[in-house]
Amino acid sequence: MSSEPSIFFSDVNERQGSFLRRTFVLGGLTTLGGLALTGRLAQLQVIQAGQYATMASNNQFNFRLVPPPRGRILDRDGVVIAGNRPSFRVLVVRDETKDLDQTLDLLGRLLPDTMDRRRSIIREVNAAPRFSPVPVKSDLSWEEFARVNLYANELPGVMADMNEARYYPFGGAFAHVIGYVAKPNDRDIQAIKDRGEKVPDILYNPGFRIGRQGVEKSFDIDLRGEAGGNRVEVDARGRVVAEDIGGSRQAIPGKDVILTLDADVQNRALEVYGEESGGCVVMDIRNGDILCMVSAPSFDPNMFVGGVPSNIYNALRDYERKPLLDKAIYGSFPPGSTFKMTTALALLDAGVNPAERVNCTGGYRYGNRTFRCWKRGGHGSMDMHNAIKNSCDTYFYHLCNRAGVDRIARVAEDLGFNQVYEIGIGGQSRGTMPSRAWKADYARRTRATHPDAGTWYPGETLSVAIGQGAVSTTALQLAVMTARLAHGRKAITPRLIKSVGGVERPAPGAGRDLPFSEEHLDIVRAGMAAVANDVTGTAYRASQLGLGDIQMAGKTGTAQSRDYGTGSRGPRDAVWTRRDHALFVAFAPHDAPRYAIALIIQHAPSGGSADAAPRAREIMKTVLLKDPDMRARIERPLPPEAVAPAGADEGELGAGPGGEVTGAAAEEIAPAAPARRRAPTATSGPRPYLSEPPQ
User: What are phi and psi of 151, to 5 degrees?
Assistant: First the structure.
């Protein structure tokens, strides 16, 4: 037997055998490990080489989003009412700033107004991602921009660049309609998360803005466009060292939105309001296009783009005339006497003879209460035509229950009250149109305990008949009512958005047929024509356009803003909140209607004839003068005036001119009557409408 050591035999040198066994195992494991490592390296370097090359490149390059140019908003003639302009700004990057406090101290000496926002700047910088620039100030002047760049070496982490900022060239004229843009806040981000949607990365970009009200908000997605991006090379700390032009992507601009509004009319409307508060809407009767929708007082939306200071915002919010509220569609007001055409149509529908006369002595006794007419001395004997012309409350008190509140409510809804219109802006006020069912429902909703809380009483109808009580409406609804009265045949629907991204939005125009006879409409429209053109009408002096033979047909209104009881009230009250509202609705030309207007002045100094009608006249003149057909008619020579034969009947004269201002104030402001003029008759009302405009 051999004496050589062996690992297979136990009778050999055991010590040497153990060593050889360990060597064999370790060698095998090492060999296997080497083979595995070689295979893995081959996989990484050969098979997956492309994948890891891409990952390495991504560690070297970043893709930084670039906000797209926001789409423009234009008026019907292509005038830009919301656009973009170059803007200089200053930004701070936290991780590139050695001492943020020291940097802000120096920056505060260059830009003193940044000191007021120091705390908010620090909070925003600390909350921002690493190497993400945070805007410190926007809209720098050229001098400020140059000053910051001059001290750039002493301001580590501070950069000054140029971007695009939203710009509203007409200031407050369109503020409520188009709204404004602002930086996305935490609530916006959370709202997207709550809907289960992924938050777009572009919302974290310091220069990006979203719509905040009006058209800017309603069409925000269309106006945003699609973000682009720059591919930049960064170092190990994430700082940009170069830009890869080839890897960048161009941003896609947002879509343009064209409105039906007219910039000239809109500007004129805000101008004529002056210091007063209220809302005005002008509509094209033929197709429902809104030419003007203004709310006063207004505000400058440009202040909100870069962030409005809290003291300015608080002043706007707390001002009693509420400049931030859109009073054309959100503000709800009692329509006052502008509602009397609705009541008149309801009476005619109930079979009331328009020639039936009611003697007005200054009030109407019903139950244990006397309902006063605005003219304390009374109007005398009134038929429907003269009741509309002179705005006699007593006439409508006396007859309204023959129609009843439900019939009045039905006619009101046919004319456009108590409705919300799809015009591209949400949140409109519906107003209130009371009826028996409405009161019963109101009692249920308020959990009234009185057993008769849901019962409608005939005495309540008297207030509704003259546009008071629970009746409330918006300027937009009043304009729709006027347009439908003037058109006569169709339920005209308003339109605000003309096109989006070059795609035309079809005009809703004429909807369903109106349920009124032409004879009844002629009676009401003739009364409106007399209001504006008869020397005894409540708005004669304030309604003369001075545009050839073009005349308006209208109706004044003066509405209580609250129940005054025995306290002071009305136009002459020194307290603004206790004054009555002034209203005026009209269409022109009254013989061939084309445009309708509704104007409300909140807590007016005087009344509908003295405050609202003159302003509506000026706005309507602007509208008519911009219409080529109307200008041709205005410039046409007038026919020679016919000479009436001696002793001819000059028509019935009413109780005297003047507005609907309540009490002694009405007598104070009533203008002197000019020379007599024949009053329009019921058969001399306007033609229903002109042909549809070309599309």
Answer: -100, 25
Distance CA 560, CA 538 (A): 18
Whether 123 and 145 have beta carbons less than 8 Å apart is answered as no
Question: DSSP letters of 119-163?
Answer: HHHHHHHHHSPTT--EEEEEEE-HHHHHHHHHTGGGSTTEEEEEE
Name the residue with tokens 């009265």: 485
Question: Region 9-16: what's the mean pLDDT?
Answer: 59
Q: For every residue of 60-81, which 3-state class applies, written as one string? A: HEEEEEECCCCCCEECCCCCEE
What residue type is 291 in one-letter code? L
d(CA 695, CA 116) in angstroms, rounded, equals 53
Q: What integer pLDDT is reported at residue 201 of this predicted model?
A: 82
Q: Rounded CA gap, 384 and 363, in Å?
A: 17
Three-state secondary-structure class, residue 243 = strand
Strand, helix or coil at 476? helix
Proportion of the chain above pLDDT 70, given as a percent:
81
Residue 374, judged by CB atoms within 10 A of its CB (0-12, 13-18, 19+), counts as: buried
- Give mean pLDDT, residues 341-359: 96
Round to whole Å and give the CA distance between 519 and 128: 70
In tens, the pLDDT along 277-334 reads 999 999 999 999 999 999 999 999 998 887 787 888 899 999 999 999 999 999 899 9
Asked if 586 and 564 count as a contact pair (C-beta separation under 8 A), the reply is no
Q: Angle, to 10 degrees, between the axis of helix 340-349 and the axis of helix 475-487?
A: 50
For 622-658, how does the pLDDT look when each residue is reduced to its tens digit (9 = 90+)?
999 999 999 999 888 766 665 545 443 333 333 333 3
In this structure, of 117-131, 361-375, 408-422, 581-595, the range with the lowest mean pLDDT score is 117-131
Alpha-carbon dihedral of residues 136, 141, 146, 148, nearest 10 degrees? -20
Model pLDDT, residue 574:
67
Distance from C-alpha of 240 to C-alpha of 62, rounded to nearest angstrom: 9
Contact 596, 370 (CB under 8 A): no
User: What is the distance between the alpha carbons of residues 201 and 203, in angstroms, rounded to a whole number?
Assistant: 5
Nearest to 137 by CA among 127, 126, 148, 151: 148
CA distance 175 to 214: 8
Contacts of 299 (CB under 8 A, 6+ apart): 172, 175, 316, 323, 324
Residue whose structure tokens are 């001290």: 151
d(CA 96, CA 156): 6
Gap between the Cα atoms of 658 and 673, Å rounded: 9
For residue 661, the tally of other CB atoms under 10 A from its CB is 30
How far is residue 514's CA from residue 411's CA, in Å, rounded to a whole number?
10
Cis peptide before 605 (omega within 30 of 0): no
The CA distance from 95 to 384, in Å, is: 79
Q: Which residue has the higher pLDDT, 350 or 61?
A: 350
Q: In terms of pLDDT, which residue wins out, 345 or 143?
A: 345
Give the 3-state secondary structure of residue 340: helix
Asked if pLDDT for residue 694 goes beyond 60, the answer is no
Cβ proximity of 288 and 492 under 8 Å: yes
Contact 219, 500 (CB under 8 A): yes
Other C-beta atoms lying within 10 Å of the C-beta of residue 592: 17
Nearest to 354 by CA among 399, 391, 322: 399
Query: What's the whole-number mean pLDDT along residues 595-619?
Result: 92
Q: Prior bond to 451 cis, omega within 30?
A: no
> For residues 190 and 188, what is the distance between their CA atoms, to the nearest angstrom?
5
Rounded to an integer, what distance in angstroms lies between the CA atom of residue 326 and that of residue 296? 8
> Residues 184-218: pLDDT tens digits?
888 888 888 888 888 888 888 777 889 999 999 99
- Whole-number average pLDDT of the chain: 82
Q: Which tops the pLDDT comparison, 560 or 4?
A: 560
This prediction has a pTM of: 0.80
Amino acid at 195: R
